[in-house]
Input
Amino acid sequence: MTSHTCSVKSLHEQLRDTLGSGKLTHPWCRQKVSEIFDLVHDVSQGQAGPDHLDSILELAGQLTDRGPAADCRESGEFVTAFVEENREAFQSHISTHTCPSGHCPMLTPAPCQMACPAGIDVPSYVTLVGQGKYAEAVSVIRRDNPFPWVCGLVCTHPCEFMCVRGRMDSPIAIMDLKGFAAEKSMSARQYANPEPLPDNCRKVCIVGAGPGGLTAAYYLALRGYRVTVLEALPVAGGMMMVGIPRYRLPREVIDREVAMIESLGVELRLNTRFGKDVTLEALRAEGYEAFLLAIGTHGTYKLRIPGEEDLEGVLPAVPFLRRVSLGDHRMPGGRVAVVGGGNVAIDAARTSLRLGCEQVHILYRRTHAEMPAHHEEVVEAEEEGVQFSFLTIPKEIRGENGRVTGIVCVRAELSEPDSSGRRRPVPVEGSEHVIPADAVIPAIGQEVQSKGLEAFEQVDWTRRSTIRVDTVTMQTHQEGVFAVGDAVTGPATVVEAISGGKKAASAIHRYFEGIAQPALPAVPVRRRRLESFEVPGALKSDLKRPEMSLLGRERRRITFQQVRLGLTDQQAHDESRRCLRCDICIRCGKCVEICRDKMGIGALQLGYLDFDEPGPTDMRITAERCIACGACATNCPTGAMQITDEDGYRVLSLCGTVLNRLQLEYCEICGEVLGPARYHDYIMKRVRDISPEMGSRRVCLDCARSKSGGRHAEITPPRE
Amino acid sequence: MSQYYLFQDQKKCIGCMACVVACKSRQALPRGPLPSLIVTIGPRKVGHLPRIAFTFMPCFHCEDPWCVAACPTGAMLQRSDDGIVTVQPDLCVGCKTCMSACPWGAPQWNPQTGKAVKCDYCQDRVAEGLEPACVTVCPTRCLHFGTPDQIPEIRRERYARARAQDL
Output
């Protein structure tokens, strides 16, 4: 919902105009309209409760029915019609405390939260980590994502790409803080489930125990459903378990978080393949009324080159990684060639190294810059000794005696960008060469293995052989059958699967309850509105994104030990303080504009506030130039900029970042706070021409008034 | 100085504050700001008797206003035709420099809007040929508004009468 208007804000403004115009002349009517205005104001401020909407309609009804004048009744009718028409937006404001259009300043969500597919309230948990409240941080995360630890280690963290701090220096280490909080609270045995609703005796069957299926299981179990998850493999976790290698995501992490979900009463049936070990009829007979397909993409694309089918030693990446994850640690061959440039290719290459392969080669047909794999992963692979051959296209796999001996490749050049902006690799003629290899691991893509799902006759499939769903509800074309995860999106990320699982859980609940399904995508929910840390401006600028310690290179090459060793307490707390708290400051830039253009002072240099053209940011110059007039704070729509008097100082802060601190002066007569000397100097300079001697005495407003009032009083002696 | 003059006959004023209330209510002000104010002096012993006096303190609309000079945004304005000093809310950013610059504390702070407010002699009423709100509500009719030549010579007359009785 990225509309350009907000109906709540629009009603707020219309009512304010009506009240201000003086059109409503009847006092009873004015009173009612201003009561409605107050309620709408609460909604736009995020202070509304569940009864606000009804109260607004009730008051509007009174105006319509009992209004003594025509304009009264018109106002009532207008409000009723407007609210009824935009009921969903009003309810969304009340229940999510979020205004996605950004028109209600107090409810504008932070970019990180908007970027998160699961819609996690990032600023709140980042702040809680800084406060040392790890378990609370985890419970905030788990409102939207039941896998904080997994995602704290392997998320693709789209939040960090949107992080506003990234415009200043580097984004907040949001993912690492999540992993830190989860590890800390798990270790302290404070990682807990919320209390589920009482059992409602309704049964849901989920096919596939990956992140999508388990997420749906978690949120359904919390709502009181009886959930059974079928899993073909002997382990739960799906691709988290058999796709992502252990050195990135230790098995214990998945086991513990799955166990948390199981402890809500979710039944896991391992080694049970749908359609083979159990049929749809049998499940229906058991009483399952809704089904969720979360079968992932465990099939692999073929290279479609000679030698691929008949030679021993050709081992696609997905079965290879699965085999290793399930405990088969035989190496595929001494020299390994991995074909592909995505994360799976990197995973396969690094896993091969750890199994003892002497030489691991990644062949990719474009260049380093075009690799879809994450930069960090590529760097770590390079460090461990993986070799890369870019602009290399495999043509044929060669072998002797039925075993792979090498792979014939041609070199490529990148074409000029085509209409889609992509540069295609064009083979260079006569550039054939052989790369010797004992094993070839294709890692060029995955597909859904739909075998067994024929039982769901009405489920519709896309041309890419994924399951077609309504992206808001995750419902398939068959009633009561939903689908999530890679099986819907094609190979994607853990967090996208989680996002789908959460949507499906809510849609399945609505399906059971017979409630209308939402027409618009869910809006992220603001879970908390926490105080920000008080941090001096200089420190705020100086804090750097932490460098996480990694396992030693030698050990990385030979073991599956976790590579990234986590943040220290100090690193995590500092990182939390580096956050700019975009859930409070909506970066409207009013403060900068007023200080520079209206006041002519230019003490705020906050270039990061500008999304399109970020300028330089310097939090130090404020202390040099600011006169502490407070105009920025007065005009801040969200209270992010604050000016307060504390311990003899006037302090200007932006989301807790102390930008300026000036000593206060006091009224010579009554001792009332006056303001800092620099503020008075500023005024004196401006009024110098009128009264050069003024300003020698510092007197407050009230004293000035009563003094001059006294001077004018005519208390004359009575006549004798 | 503005071309208008607001004269308070202190002898008649009973300190009922009707003018203060009328001023606030006309500008729809919240708790806090008092663009016009009755300053109470005393009670003080004068001779053998206790005396109290009330001074009406609106804005003096100075010839050379400090507030206008201090205002960095041009929101505080002295009207060139009649000299009324008034603040334009659209331009005011709430820096409070006018309040600090005025030696009499005439500009006041409206916490609801985050802007300065002050006595503008009810300029819109004046434009319609009416008197300012404070003047119209005064039960003792001690407030007089007009151009200086219209102001009754109350003090002179009173003085003259007192002298005459002495004779």
Notes: The domain at 5-156 of chain B is CATH 3.30.70.20 (Alpha-Beta Plaits). Chain B has a mean pLDDT of 90. The first helix of chain B runs from residue 18 to 26. Strands of chain B lie at 5-8, 37-46, 49-57, 76-78, 85-87, 108-110, 115-117, 143-146.
